[in-house]
Write a structure and sequence with these properties.
The structure holds two protein chains of two kinds. By secondary structure, chain A is an alpha/beta fold. Chain A is built from twelve helices and ten strands. In chain A, the strands form two sheets. Chain A has an eight-stranded parallel β-sheet with strand order 8-7-6-5-4-3-10-9. In chain A, strands 1-2 form a two-stranded antiparallel sheet. Chain A starts with 5 loop residues before the first helix and ends in a 14-residue tail after the last helix. Chain B is globular and about 80 Å long. The chains are: A alpha/beta, B alpha/beta.
Chain lengths: ~400, ~475
């Protein structure tokens, strides 16, 4: 403060303090031979405190702790909430519904997720889909009958929603007639009371027939039809979903613009964001998961920034983890596949969930249970537990 | 995108376009500097002051910290974006594994040997471990020093971390090894003496607190002594481990990058090794460590200390690291074209695959391991895998035809048979139509190919 009249400074400071109740001075050093302070309206405690602190500063400048506010972002929009399933009061026969989406921010510390990501157990209408050894071993004989399989996963693992993949309807597989597939669908709706996702076979023509009929058969149950893409006559599926009140899953191969394009067409045909879930493709850990990480992150950020065509919940076929040979192949160098496989699926699912996925299609019991348990905390928020690393170090 | 623009950097450059840095113009050099592909020292015309300004301008919001010297050296931190698609992540997080000073000397030596010799090959890259963390469990300086000695002697290129809360114990460790080992954990109770010790030995220091905000006073106190810090906001253990730990790391990183909150501008540190003590069954412990560490690799962990050295537990973590730290600016593709496997001739089979780097390496590796002689026709799918490019429309008959014409395969073989991947079965007809060749659908996984070729009589095809 050299060059200025100290007395003037003190006077102006005290003048400014007339209405203050408390004053903290930071990084201030005042060097004077003699100081006289004229107490006027400021309470006596204030200058005393100033003097005390000045004295401390002279002895040793204690480092200052900067103020901190958690970096909570401002987002323009919220992710739509999509409900799958309908209870009796809603015109269906399910004993619960699942709600996906509703996020208000990207990271949990900014705002916990209103609805934690949901795990759906995959059930296939035929065991001949190359079920990996470690999974077959865990599930046992139930894989021979899809109805038993669905019942078992709800009962044993407590999942809130089941996906029945009607893969055998593919002309490249058994070309199971639509009517037969519908019979199975009805049996499953009877056997389990949780909401249902109806999966197709990936055949662009047959799937349209399967979904259109399934929409009718499942009237009132608000199932999700999984999935539609721009290479099929998806408009018919959208119309059926609208008519019978179902949800559709839109699919695009890890491409944000393609994801947006199909969603735009689906929404323009009259479905609402609350009726649509999107699948931007899940690549397995080690087999392109970084592309999925980027696509999902960009989609979620765009949705939160108000992109009308991307503000829907995200679904992930985390079962794709088993496409990685590290998950299923016997290899002594890698250790037992009984441990590798479930880890591979759990890590794949959790990675995409942290990037924004709201629905995780999975099928190894350990992975399902581990991930289900973990995901709850995306809604609950951060927990500081009792066990600390320092307890194990002297 | 990076916060600093190439124009801001250009303003600090001499503008001679002399080419001494290897770039034809100063603007090109500026762009490379912004993308972290060049070193400011490459410009010979900068005086000390300009060089300092330039380095300040382009220094990342997360400081880079070097642990150890020479062959043992690892660099952590250095990130400048929150999401990898915005640029790329730098410095893949090293994985350290623990030894404890209450183990038998032979046990320590044998575990150090497993850490040092661990290697798994993936996609033409050898995945290894990076360091050994010597953890004090007895609090006795002499015992700790002995463990450090065994760890250092038993390893060649592993970085070293000295883990104890006691200054005397750490000092004993530093007497044995003082080539910049990581010293950890500095907590509220011991931060002053540990920071002084780290500064005295010029070592990086790991700070530990129970939550994000509690780290701030530790950083302030420690940085009076040293700027080489790592931040551990307290790894969580239990069903909430993944969400809580990644949430803390995300908060720290977002504050550092978007708010430029300086106390958080350091690399982070995560410890999963306590699971070895918390779980009764070593398999449960390994599963939990693996799951947690893999998630933390996605979310801003810059260094991880694990207990397990089981390959099944480490493989997911190291694979996740390989994926997340791949530079998205470089396509993960090999050159499309015709590749020879073994010694193919005019009767050898022609196999088709995509130019996704991983797909190519898997297929080529499996065929080589199986002793197959064949032609591998790699089509341009823009670096996408088989299933994805079939779904996305890059794997088409046209794409196959194009590479066949470019490589002149029809002059190299006497037959007209193509073998496409099992996952490309849906485009069989399309490929047949576009090329006019007979198309055979191969196996779902390339590991089954050698047996398939033999069994189907396709190893030699008479024209």
């Amino acid at each position: 403060m050299g060059g200025l009249d100290p007395e003037e400074i003190i006077k102006s400071v005290l003048g400014a303090l007339e209405d203050a109740e408390e004053v903290e001075l930071r990084n201030v050093a005042i060097e004077v031979e003699e100081m006289e302070i004229d107490f006027r309206t400021a309470a006596q405690v204030i200058p005393m405190e100033i003097l005390r602190r000045l004295g401390e500063r002279k002895e040793k400048a204690a480092p200052e702790i900067p103020e901190y506010e958690p970096p909570v972002g401002e987002y323009e929009s919220e992710i739509a909430e999509v409900t799958i399933g309908a209870t009796k009061s809603e015109g269906g026969t399910r004993d619960r519904v699942v709600v996906l989406g509703g996020e208000k921010a990207y990271f949990p510390f900014e705002a916990p997720r209103p609805n934690p990501p949901v795990v759906t157990f995959d059930v296939f209408d035929t065991p001949d889909v190359g079920i990996p050894g470690p999974i077959r071993q865990e599930l046992g004989d139930v894989v021979e009958d899809p109805v038993d399989w669905a019942r078992a996963v709800v009962k044993r693992y407590g999942v809130d929603i089941v996906t029945i993949h009607l893969v055998s309807t593919s002309p490249k597989m058994y070309d199971t007639p639509v009517e037969e597939a519908m019979k199975l669908l009805e049996d499953i709706l009877d056997a389990v009371k949780v909401p249902i996702i109806v999966g197709g076979s990936g055949d662009p023509e047959k799937d349209v027939e399967v979904f259109v009929k399934a929409a009718e058969v499942c009237e009132g149950e608000r199932v999700m039809l999984s999935s539609i893409n721009e290479d099929m006559d998806f408009e018919r599926v959208v119309e059926a979903a609208k008519e019978y009140g179902h949800v559709v899953l839109t699919f695009a191969p890890i491409d944000v613009n393609m994801m947006k394009s199909i969603n735009k067409r689906v929404l323009n045909r009259g479905l609402k964001p609350e009726d649509v879930v999107m699948d931007p493709t899940t690549c397995a850990l080690g087999y392109g998961i970084e592309y999925t990480i980027d696509a999902m992150t960009r989609i979620r950020l765009a949705g939160l920034q108000g992109d009308e065509y991307l503000r829907m919940p995200i679904s992930s076929g985390s079962t794709n983890a088993w496409a990685a040979r590290e998950a299923w192949m016997k290899n002594e160098e890698w250790g037992p596949r009984e441990y590798r496989g479930p880890l591979w699926e759990a890590v794949t699912a959790t990675t995409v969930a942290l990037c924004g996925a709201d629905l995780l299609m999975m099928f190894h019991p350990w992975a399902v249970q581990t991930v289900m348990e973990a995901m709850e905390y995306l809604a609950e928020g951060r927990i500081i537990g009792d066990a600390r690393v320092t307890d194990f170090i002297i | 995108m990076p916060k600093v623009s190439a124009m801001d950097v250009y303003k600090l450059l001499p503008g001679h376009n002399c080419g001494a840095c290897g770039c034809s113009t100063c603007m090109e050099f500026a762009t490379k500097l912004v993308n972290r592909e060049a070193d400011p020292e490459d410009c010979p015309h900068l005086d000390e002051d300009s060089l300092r300004k330039l380095k300040e301008l382009i220094s990342p919001p997360v400081k880079e910290v070097r642990i150890c010297e020479g062959d043992r050296s690892v660099v952590v931190g250095g990130d400048e974006v929150l999401f990898r698609h915005e640029l790329t992540f730098f410095n893949p997080p090293p994985v350290f594994c623990t030894v404890y000073d209450d183990m038998d000397e032979e046990e320590i030596a044998s575990k150090v040997d497993r850490i040092q010799s661990f290697q798994v090959e993936r996609v033409g890259e050898v995945l290894t471990l990076d360091g050994v963390a010597v953890v004090s469990r007895k609090g006795d300086p002499e015992t700790f020093a002995k463990a450090v000695e065994i760890a250092v002697e038993g390893s060649e290129d592993l970085a070293i971390a000295l883990v104890s809360k006691e200054v005397d114990v750490l000092r004993a460790g530093l007497d044995v090894f003082d080539e910049r080992p990581l010293v950890y954990p500095a907590t509220e109770e011991n931060v002053e003496p540990l920071a002084a010790l780290a500064a005295e030995h010029d070592c990086p220091l790991g700070l530990h607190a129970d939550d994000v905000e509690d780290l701030i006073p530790l950083v302030v106190k420690a940085s009076e002594h040293t700027e080489d810090l790592l931040l551990d906001p307290g790894t969580e253990f239990g069903p909430y481990d993944v969400v809580s730990t990644t949430d803390k790391l995300s908060e720290i990183r977002k504050a550092a990058i978007e708010e430029e909150f300086e106390p958080f501008g350091y690399p982070t540190l995560v410890t999963t090794f306590p699971y070895a003590f918390l779980e009764d069954d070593p398999v449960d412990a390994g599963m939990r460590e693996s799951y947690l560490a893999s998630a933390c690799v996605l979310r801003y962990a810059d260094l991880i200390i694990m207990d397990t050295v089981e390959p099944w537990a480490l493989l997911p973590v190291l694979t996740q690291r390989q994926c997340v730290y791949t530079d998205p600016r470089e396509p993960q593709a090999v050159e499309p074209g015709l590749y020879k496997i073994g010694n193919p001739d005019e009767h050898s089979p022609v196999l088709v695959t995509t130019n996704f780097k991983l797909t190519y390496h898997c297929v080529a590796g499996d065929l080589e391991d199986g002793g197959v002689d064949c032609w591998l026709l790699v089509i341009d799918t823009g670096g996408l895998a088989v299933d994805v490019s079939v779904a996305g429309g890059q794997f088409t008959g046209e794409a196959v035809k194009e590479v066949m014409e470019e490589t002149g395969i029809e002059e190299k073989v006497a037959h007209r048979v193509l073998i496409i991947p099992g996952k490309a079965a849906a485009v069989k007809g399309d490929v047949e139509e576009a090329t006019g060749w007979e198309v055979i659908v191969g196996t779902q996984d390339s590991s089954e190919l050698p047996e398939f070729l033999e069994k189907e009589g396709l190893a030699r095809i008479e024209g």
